[in-house]
Amino acid sequence: MSIIIAPSILSADLTRLGEQVQQAEEGGADWIHVDVMDGRFVPNITFGPNVVKAVKRTTNLPIDVHLMIVEPEKHLQAFADAGTNYITVHYETCPHIHRTLQTIQDLGMFPGIVINPGTPVNTLVELTEYVNKVLIMTVNPGFGGQSFIESMVDKIRRTKHLLETSGSEASIQVDGGISSKTIKACYDAGARNFIAGSAIFEHKDGIAAGIAALRHALIL
Q: Which of 55, 164, 171, 176 is 20 to 30 A from 5, alpha carbon to alpha carbon?
């Protein structure tokens, strides 16, 4: 399974968003990640479908949307129309999660499921065949720049075991505090899809250097 680096625009300079997305693409990014927050499920408020449309106009890379919102099923059509390719919803916000995942697929997007640090891995048991990826939050969602929760490495390992034993081909994505210091442990535990914000957009030598540093850390 190939490695995917997905820069999160949550850490981008929004006054130069299009330029920075293009720099990420030229610097070797695989996807562009958009964190959508509603001020209800998480404290922060961020982006909506119009931002996805704007990003789509600036890059040929797939757009990966993470819905940190309540009632995500009400907004799936809008994100599909905006050009979203991959979309993940939180187990914690979807009382009818199976139906929500089916709707995502019916709309032509690849469905994924997210679980918070405090949500057990076994909540995924009935859902692994319906998702393209499982996103393990390695911080509590809501803000960029948080510190990586070390105990999530074992959670990634247990998620990998669950996916393998169920016969699922879903990949494991991780988000939160991903940097050149934390990415290798996540990779060794089974993650292959890495969301990074500040490690890329705030890298002292620029966006391309931030992406290169993450890839280099994986081979050390």
A: 164
Assign 196 to helix, strand or coil.
Answer: strand
Rounded mean pLDDT of 82-95?
96
Which residues is 170 bridged to in the sheet? none
In this structure, are residues 17 and 9 in contact, taking their beta carbons and an 8 Å threshold?
A: yes
> Mean pLDDT in the chain?
95
CB burial string 116-147: b at 16+ within 10 A, e below: beebebeebeebbebbbbbbbbbbebeebebe
Assessment of whether the complete model's pTM goes beyond 0.90: yes
Clarify whether 35 is annotated catalytic. yes
The whole-number average pLDDT for the span 179-185 is 97
Cβ–Cβ < 8 Å for 149, 155: no
Let me know if 38 is a catalytic residue. Answer: no
Residue 106 pLDDT = 98
Q: Residues 143, 146, 149, 152: is their CA dihedral positive or negative?
A: positive
Query: Using one digit for the tens of pLDDT, what is the confidence trace for 21-50?
Result: 999 999 999 999 999 999 999 989 999 999
Other CB atoms within 10 A of residue 185 CB: 18
Residue length, the chain? 220
Residue among 13, 30, 35, 81 flagged as catalytic: 35
Burial 42-54 (b: 16+ CB within 10 A, else e): beeebbbbebbbb
Could you say which of 30, 38, 64, 175 is catalytic? 175
